[in-house]
Amino acid sequence: MRTVDIRVPATSANLGPGFDALGLALSLHDEVRATLTGERGVHVTVEGEGAGEVDSGEGHLVVKAMRKAFERMGVPQPEGIRLHCRNRIPHARGLGSSSAAVCAGILAARALADSELSDDDVYALATEMEGHPDNVAPCLAGGLTISWSDHDGLPRMVRLAPDQRVRPVVVVPSTRLSTEAARGLLPKDVPHKDASFNAGRAALLIAALTRRPERELLLAATEDRLHQGYRAPAMRASADLVERLRAVGVPAVVSGAGPTVLAFSTSDTQDLIAPEVGNDWHIQLMDVDPVGANVQFPETR
């Protein structure tokens, strides 16, 4: 038997204006222990988020990602896989739970196969499985990431280190929303003035997060006209909370496809968030994860 431990962070994509491009790694993690047993069959146990809900066999997303990675590496598929998942990232809330599972599976397969699959290949395969790279990039690399596709359609990324004063706050509702449902509300075309507006705000957001995390700059930099308004009917409570927080000066956005709300806490906004949040929400102050996905073999700990 051979075992590997994978630790992957939650992520928040878009960050307001950076639709499908910007992502942030958060200090909330799922942990996966993957073992090749040498025996026939796949067995998955889950504690925490998704326990009793997700597939416990071949249909589990980590297993699917492992299988896809073994195939991509040209490695024979192992018959026996055992997973133990300790999940802390809420599912279907806009915090990158599926990206975390995909990245964990691919990294586990690479480690267990002792393959030379490059980091770029891991990133490309994870993006292929997810459909877009905005959550995948920060999950793998940590920090603040900018992702795009080159002229050959291959995903690329740049990792930046946010200013240490940046403190993300996630406000998680009890309700869920699938990424597919949220994306289905987006129009095929947007006005040129809205695209121009977001380009400027996304550039300003990079400056604010990495050099000047001041409330006034962050508040302006997190404005968006490309996706949040279109998605609001599917998560009215989230849209209303974002509006209330912004009205009192808190830089707040929808995290990813929602319905979680992401706020940036500064020294003069920390006391403004809780009064706007009702009992149906869970507030958690976080740090930015600077490392991203981590791989260890138990015997080396």
TrEMBL record:
Domain GHMP kinase C-terminal intervals: 215-278
Record's keyword terms, sorted: Amino-acid biosynthesis, ATP-binding, Cytoplasm, Kinase, Nucleotide-binding, Threonine biosynthesis, Transferase
Predominant location category: cytoplasm
Enzyme category, top tier: transferase
Binding of ATP, residues: P90, H91, A92, R93, G94, L95, G96, S97, S98, S99, A100
Enzyme Commission code(s) on record: 2.7.1.39
Subcellular location: Cytoplasm
Catalytic reaction annotation: L-homoserine + ATP = O-phospho-L-homoserine + ADP + H(+)
Protein name, entry field: Homoserine kinase
Organism of origin: Nonomuraea monospora
